[in-house]
Amino acid sequence: MLKIENLHAEIAGKEILKGINLTVNAGEVHAIMGPNGSGKSTLSMVLAGNPAYTVTEGTAEFFGKDLLAMPPEVRSHEGLFLGFQYPVEIPGVSMVNFMRAAINERRKYLGEPPMSATEFLKLMREKRAVVELDNKLASRSVNEGFSGGEKKRNEIFQMAMLEPRLSILDETDSGLDIDALRIVAGGVNKLKTSQNATIVITHYQRLLDYIKPDVIHILYKGRIVKTAGPELALELEEKGYDWIKEMADKD
Description:
- The protein is of the alpha/beta class and 251 residues long.
- It has helices at 40-48, 72-77, 95-109, 117-130, 135-138, 148-162, 178-191, 205-208, 231-239, 241-250, and strands at 2-11, 14-24, 29-33, 53-62, 65-66, 80-83, 90-94, 141-142, 166-170, 197-201, 215-220, 223-228.
- The longest helix is centred in the middle third of the chain and has 15 residues, at 95-109.
C-alpha cells in the first residue's frame, strides 16, 4: 500500500526528516511514537502534501503510484486521509455541505456519479453512529464552537464518511478525556478492514490500549530508530524516551 524509502524533508531550510523508511500493508495498524521534535507530525504533513514542507530526497509510493508527485487533493481522492492534531474551524461552511462536496469530488475523480441527497443523508446517519456524533454538531459549521473532544470525534466522522484506504491520525488522543478517547478509538477500530490501513501518531501508551497496533516505530531525530511489535510501547512506558535517545545516539 505505502512504501517510503530514504525520505528527507525540510521546512524553511531546516531538515526535519533524515531518511525515513517505512512500509505499510493493507489490514495493518502502525503506531509511530517518539519525543517532541522528532519529526512525527512532519511526516504526516509531507505524506498529505502540505506545501510548507519540501522533500529533498527519497520516494513515497501509494499503491504503486508516486505519492509525492500528486497535489494534496489528488492524494485525498486516491484514498489518503489525515486527521489533524489541531483541527481547524471553518465558520460559515456547514458540515453537511463540506462532506457532500468532499465525497462528490472524490466520486467525480473516480468516474462515479454524484451521490444523491437521500443517499448522502442516509450515509451521514450511519457514520454519525460510529463515533456517537450528535446530530446538532453534524448540522453546524465545521468544528465551529466544538470542544477539543468534539473536534477529534468530528475528524473520525469525516474519516468514516470518506472511507479512505490509508488514514494518518496525528496525535488524535491529544487533549481527550477518557470518555472521548474511548469513543474516538472505538470509531477507528470499527472502521478497520482488511482493505485499509492506519498510521497512528502518538506520544502515549494509553491510546494504544484502545487501538491495537500491529507494528510500532520509534522516530527520533528524523529517523526511525527502532521497530517492533506492541510490546515496544510498554517498554517505552517503563523506560521512557531517554532509553531510545541513548540507544540512537550510540548508533
